Amino acid sequence: MAKTFLVTGGAGFIGSAVVRELIGTTEHRVVNVDKLTYAGNLGSLEGVATSPRHLFVEADICDTPTMQRLFAEQRPDVVMHLAAESHVDRSIDGPAEFIRTNVVGTSVLLEVARGYWNELLEREPGKAAGFRFHHVSTDEVYGDLDDRQGLFTESTPYAPSSPYAASKASADHLVRAWQRTYGLPTLITNCSNNYGSHHFPEKLIPLMILNALAGKPLPVYGDGQQVRDWLHVEDHARALIRVASDGRVGETYNIGGHNEKTNLAVVEAICDLLQELAPSHRSYRDLITFVDDRPGHDRRYAIDAGKIARELGWVPHETLESGLRKTVEWYLRNQSWWRRVQEGRYQGQRLGLADTV
Ligand code: NAD
């Protein structure tokens, strides 16, 4: 049955992949709520933006009256909450916006969703029974695994290191509290590092691709031996829709790619792919430059994604090798997308959509 999904942060990297997947592969309607911060880009919604099942609403999740009006008018069956400040380095330079959007914004949405759900319980119990609030979070809430063994499971204690991770951990605790205290039907997912198309070029993989193409240094923090588990964004989008649709209410699901690699190995793999696909520079690997490590930099993250595989049958389709190749090819084919971002021209783009409620 076709449902209404209210997706927050749907003009961002992962949110836009979720919206493209929902519009492209399901019959559901999508209400896409995004403030269009520097990370929001309507150019990432090309192909779905004009679908009659997609409504874009430019709004701030911290704005309670607007969120109340939106829920009352759009009557969502499922909320997928992805809006956030997401860049660790920015959270170190200026944590306040992370606390505002990630903590306060999540609490606003929980309260608005609770009011809406209570009203559904009285007037439309059938719709209330199917209602879900899915909060999208990160494996960074678990801190780091300093040994080489071990994996994060859904019961690993929280030990966030950066202001970003702490703000997401706070939001996760709020979501659990709203479920335990008020019975709000919530779900949480904690995912490893994503990569793929439409990724803002401040993040490791797109930054390295674009710097390399420009012949600029490829800055690697510390010794580059930090281990991350990489997941292709389209695999993540499919996992999120699976959990939002069929996950058990009140549960947490870890999502990972089974692709553990050091940052240095990822950068070297990008250099080798570019050497093959865009051999303009004599040796991309020569551009690798080691820079001072980030304060509080976690050494290793690794996810046990067994629960989502067992309960919901989700497994990633891409390996890091196949996904990185797809990603490098996308950046080579879509220069207009990233040149607009680099030149700051994407912010004025509106694609002729309704941009306020
Ligand atoms: P992103 O920074 O690319 O996108 C965030 C989006 O949220 C942007 O479109 C931005 O305009 C919007 N936004 C920010 N503040 C807002 C506000 N106050 N009101 C409404 N919209 C607002 O982030 P992303 O990488 O797509 O991450 C999406 C979610 O997934 C985040 O919650 C993040 O914590 C989580 N996550 C990300 C990763 C990753 O590797 N990128 C991994 C695990 C979890």
UniProtKB/TrEMBL annotation:
| PANTHER family per the UniProt record, alphabetical | DTDP-D-GLUCOSE 4,6-DEHYDRATASE-RELATED (PTHR43000)
What name has this protein been given in UniProt? dTDP-glucose 4,6-dehydratase
Which Enzyme Commission number(s) are listed? 4.2.1.46
**Keyword Iron on this protein?**
no
Q: What InterPro entries does this protein's entry cite?
A: dTDP_Gluc_deHydtase (IPR005888), NAD(P)-bd_dom (IPR016040), NAD(P)-bd_dom_sf (IPR036291)
Cofactors required: NAD(+)
Q: Does the keyword Lyase apply?
A: yes
> Which residue numbers delimit the NAD(P)-binding domain?
6-327
Catalytic reactions on record: dTDP-alpha-D-glucose = dTDP-4-dehydro-6-deoxy-alpha-D-glucose + H2O
Q: Which Pfam families match?
A: GDP_Man_Dehyd (PF16363)
The coiled-coil segments of this chain are none
Recite the UniProt keywords alphabetically: Lyase, NAD
Q: Which SUPFAM superfamilies match?
A: NAD(P)-binding Rossmann-fold domains
Question: Where would you find the membrane-spanning parts of this chain?
Answer: none
Question: Which family is this protein grouped under?
Answer: Belongs to the NAD(P)-dependent epimerase/dehydratase family. dTDP-glucose dehydratase subfamily.
Instruction: Please give the organism.
Output: Halomonas heilongjiangensis
Query: Some GO term, biological process aspect, for this entry: which one?
Result: nucleotide-sugar metabolic process
What does the record give under GO molecular function?
Answer: dTDP-glucose 4,6-dehydratase activity
Lineage here is: Bacteria, Pseudomonadati, Pseudomonadota, Gammaproteobacteria, Oceanospirillales
